[in-house]
Amino acid sequence: MIVLHYTGMTSGEAALDRLTSPEAKVSCHYLVDEDGTLYRLVDEEKRAWHAGKSRWRGITDVNSASIGIEIVNPGHEFGYREFPDEQMATVIPLVADIKARHGVGRGNVVGHSDIAPARKEDPGELFPWWELAKRRLTLPSPSRDLVDPYWTDAGFLLALERFGYDVSDEQKAVIAFQRRFRPDMIDGIIDGECRAKLLSLLLPRPQ
Question: Within a 10 A sphere around the Cβ of 134, how many other Cβ atoms?
Answer without folding.
Answer: 11
